[in-house]
User: Fold these one by one.
Assistant:
Number 1:
Amino acid sequence: MKLLSTLLAGAALALCAFTAQAEVRFGVMNESYPPFFAKDASGEWQGWEMDLMNAVCTQMKEKCSIVELSWDGLIPALQSKKFDVIWSSMSNTAERSKVIDFTDKYYNTPSTLIGPRDEKPGASAADVKGKSIGIQVSTIQSEYYKKYFADVAEEKTYQTLDEAFQDLASGRIDYVFGDSLALDAFLKSDSGKDCCAKMGDVADDKEILGAGVSGGLRKEDTELKAKLNAAIAAVRASGTYDQITKKYFDFDIYGAK
């Protein structure tokens, strides 16, 4: 009887293991980046990118979870298998593609400079000459600065954009350089709308600024990449992508195909 019970218990465990859903762990920066991701009062993640993640997981019929890390720790943590996919507004660039793979694009927006409201608009090297520019560390904007602005302007680095916004509002730096939608959200906020304005989008450089925001993957995870790509395409084709986007934006953030 004891042998039979042991065999039945083993069979039950095997059945559970066979029928259980695989969990896909999504790595997210542990700082708010509205309107893409931020925690609400109860500590739950909300935002456009979180809604899209949930839709993609539903499409894949997978259980999903979130792992929080600092922005500059995301790629190392992915490589050490602390989670399975970076889902944190990371642009697919040639430099990053040397070490990780990417899903298909799920949005694409320009890089922008913002500054004091009384500053003359402009986003070229001539416009920022002699100025200080706040940039989040390990971003495509930091790489763009090195190529186009380093000879004429000073870079001030920050762990988060919120820190850069605070210094801009208080006059400690002249500009903040980042993704247009994140900067636009600050300009619409109580602290941003009175002090600051958009200076302009910088000239595109696809080698540095990338081909759009995508999910970051380990190069060997080809099966997961195929599943994510199929799910992203299905969410777009079904109209779910547009429904999610309309909750946050009054324009299409997918960008040109």
Number 2:
Amino acid sequence: MSIVEPAPGEPRRPQGPRDPGDAWVVTEDGTKYWGRFGAAGLLAVDDARGVLLQQRVGWSHFGGTWGIPGGAMHQGETAVDGAMRESQEEAGVPDGSVRPLFTAVYDIEIWSYTTLVAVVETPFEPAITDPESLALEWVPAAGVTDLTLHPGFAASWPILRDAMTVRPVIVVDVANVMGSTPNGWWKDRAGAAGKVLSSFADVASGGVAAAELELPGAVWFPRVVAVLEGEAKAAPDVSGVVVERASGSGDDEIVAVVTREAERPGAVVHVVTSDRDLRSRVDALGAVTHGARWLTGA
């Protein structure tokens, strides 16, 4: 393997200094991969319009083919941050317009490419904001293979296509999780509930290993719905977690939440509780159940 700086103007950016990551990784057989620290790109999924694809400019690697906005990661940058930055630079994807769903990684040890699949929550029109795009279009999933695709994207598309319709959600029985740890929760139920919410907010933002959810890919970012009951309902909301406050029985509220969530297209519902009776009720609804210490060890 060797690192080769690009020739002047290839590939190029319209503004600013070149980042140390902007270089070719060249294998012993001469195959070139762009990005000293790996690369990442965004596959934005709009349920109404399809996926956002980019036709690459002629001077770029595999110029003229269609793929996703992406490029070399910066030193110390996470793949998710890199994918979002590149999509903003190349396609004008607005801040906050998409929600991460999962990542898929192509890794050859000396180089890797991470695809961030994200769901559009605020519709937007892409814009060609640098010289690396010939065109940007929303393409229905059924029409993707009609295009001349970048070889890497073509290889990954079948797995991405099937996985991008899945919508995992984790429903948390906060009372049960809270009660599983003898940390004095009975003295301050709202405070203890807040700690549980915070731990699952970390799960929502940091993601869950695909193996934990029995899904393809590398890391998933499921929606988290936490159910509070009794005195714990006084706990404040936490960013990244949908909080449901039961008007009566917490178990009944969880069953209602699972029933509602299971009706969403592509839903895969996971319930965190060690309560046997509740597990039986949600198992009957098709949910996957886990013990109170799953993911957080709380």
Number 3:
Amino acid sequence: MSTRTLISPAQLARPRGKVVYWTVFALVVGGFTLAFLGPLYWMASSGFKDAQEVVRTPPTLVPGSFTPENYTRAWEVMDLATLLFNTLYYAFGALAFQLVLDVAAAYSLSKLRPVLGKAILGMMLATLMIPATVLVVPQYLTVLDVPVVERNLLNTPWAIWLPSVANAFNVFLLKRFFDSIPRELLDAASMDGASPLRILWSIVLPISRPILGVVSIFAIVGVWKDFLWPMLTLPDPAVQTLNVGIYSLSNGVPVNVLIASLTIASVPTLLIFLVFQRNIMSGLTAGGLKG
């Protein structure tokens, strides 16, 4: 059975077909590369320019006034060390809560089959249809005065951690992966006397490392890139995240130093993607076990 493509193998074997194919391929790849990497290059290179060159029209592609001291000044003026520590603290705290609670929810919906499990999953997925901005006001009122306990969570890590736990998309990804694990494997462990918790810890979690890696990256990046919610719930400058802190301290800071601080803030998430891109793709495409 032959695979149908836009260009047949016979046409591609001709010299003219090869030229047309590789020309179109190079233009498409080059265009997408320029569209995605162009803004990153402009941001990183502008951090090495002086204040006058940054706002020059037309902009310069290569910094004419090479001033790497902008990055050192940005680190000190914007207090990036404190902001970076705060963001890492919030991100890994949210990761810990998501791994514990979202994994438990997905495992129970997939393998324990609770009563009304499908209805619960349906209502969870329905929340993905609601725009995030619509939920800002009720979520803010909730953390301002938490029901039952009557506590104000503003300027505390719980204002970031608790809303991040209720992530229907991560629960769906985990449940989809857990569904692909053969039931016979879990039944065999159950017949040997393993409890549901032991099965989860000893069998399901080791198999689920790819999807757990994807959920972990989503959790960290979700907190790292968030701006509106931390700005509302963390008004104290001492506990603000990287994005909010840079925004709050940007008044009076030269534009080249501000761009340098934004470049530094973008480096960790880019490194996470470059290091774990294979895990991201394998986790998203993992759908079953062969055996």
